[in-house]
Amino acid sequence: MPSDADFAQFAEDARQRVEGVLGQLLPPSDCLPARLHQAMRYSTLGGGKRLRPLLVYATGHVLEAAPALLDRPACAVELIHAYSLVHDDLPAMDDDDLRRGQPTCHKQYDEATAILAGDALQALAFQVLADDWELDAALRLRMVAALALAAGSRGMVGGQAIDLAAVGHTLSLPALESMHIHKTGMLIRASVQLGALAAGVAAGEVHERLLHYADNIGLAFQVQDDILDEEGETAVMGKQNGADRARNKPSYVSLLGLAEAKALARRLCDDALAALADFDGRADHLRALAHLIVERRQ
Ligand code: GRG
User: Fold this and answer.
1) For tag attachment on the chain, is the N or C end more exposed, with fewer CB atoms within 10 Å?
2) Top mutation candidate among 85, 180, 191 for ligand 1, by most atoms within 8 Å of CB
């Protein structure tokens, strides 16, 4: 039975792998146009929990995929995530000065460079998958399609549009849930999907259970994010106006209250774990990630 120490080692190894491969896949800082490439590297290599890559590696581990097959899928989801944060921080969106305790990309560079860096990070994500010669072409195509769906107007970008339109309005619980499923849940689902696809698993009972797990932790992640916003933790970690925004934006805490939001996060975590009930110890890293998502303080 893997222990907490096994998970800590797994997470450390996975973070080192993905950061090493990202460092190689991103154009070097002196490659022209240098300022753009520096902004891309600044926004991708400057920290973060690497939750989505961890999900790719942990899902691949369940299905006994070789870690080398998971590197590019893990990088692809992180590149989409990095692009979304760069654009989310822009003045036209959340207008944040700090991200992960450091100046946001448009503050460190300039607004035009941040827009272009986000655009280029998104394009690189798909190039990284398309060029993955380790993987069968049909699987690569499925990965590209899954990631494109998760990132686009029927996924993350659509969720962001709903979120922006909802500021200052009251959303019902189902509407709030739908917004989060699109904005953050679908990229979390795609992370698990890409891990499964790298192992050659594209359908069937195991696939369905893994997606059920992903959908529950995706929502749990967002509920916990709202809880942290309410408790002011994200403000401490550098999301400068997080606590203020929590008051203006619809959130699980504003709709349910803090105690009920915490109970919901625990229920979603339990449902995610229940989806893995028939899996053996190889799923323990996924189980640990579900706990981490609802117990995290940043
Ligand atoms: C602008 C196209 C576009 C999309 C933006 C996901 C998203 C949509 C914006 C992110 C803004 C945000 C703070 C959402 C709340 C949940 C979330 C995704 C938090 C940040 O993700 P973490 O905690 O970040 O995984 P780290 O820093 O650990 O990588």
Assistant:
1) N
2) 85
Taking the CA of residue 78 as reference, the ligand 1 atom at the shortest distance is: 29
Q: Could you read off the pLDDT of 260-273 as tens digits, one per residue?
A: 999 999 999 999 99
Q: Whose CA is nearest to atom 7 of ligand 1?
A: 84
Q: Is residue 157 lining ligand 1, measured as CB closer than 6 Å?
A: yes
Pocket test for ligand 1, best of 50, 98, 183, 189 (most atoms within 8 A of CB): 183
Dist. CA 67–CA 183, nearest whole Å: 28
b/e per residue 198-219 (b: at least 16 CB within 10 A): bbebeeeeebebbebbbbbbbb
- pTM of the predicted model, to two decimals? 0.94
- The pLDDT score that the predictor gives to residue 180 is 94
Helix (H, G, I), strand (E, B) or coil at 94: coil
3-state secondary structure 195-209: HHHHCCCCCCHHHHH
ipTM of the shown complex: 0.91
What burial class does residue 168 get, using C-beta atoms within 10 Å of its C-beta: 0-12 exposed, 13-18 middle, 19+ buried? exposed
Q: Does ligand 1 come within 6 angstroms of the Cβ of 51?
A: yes
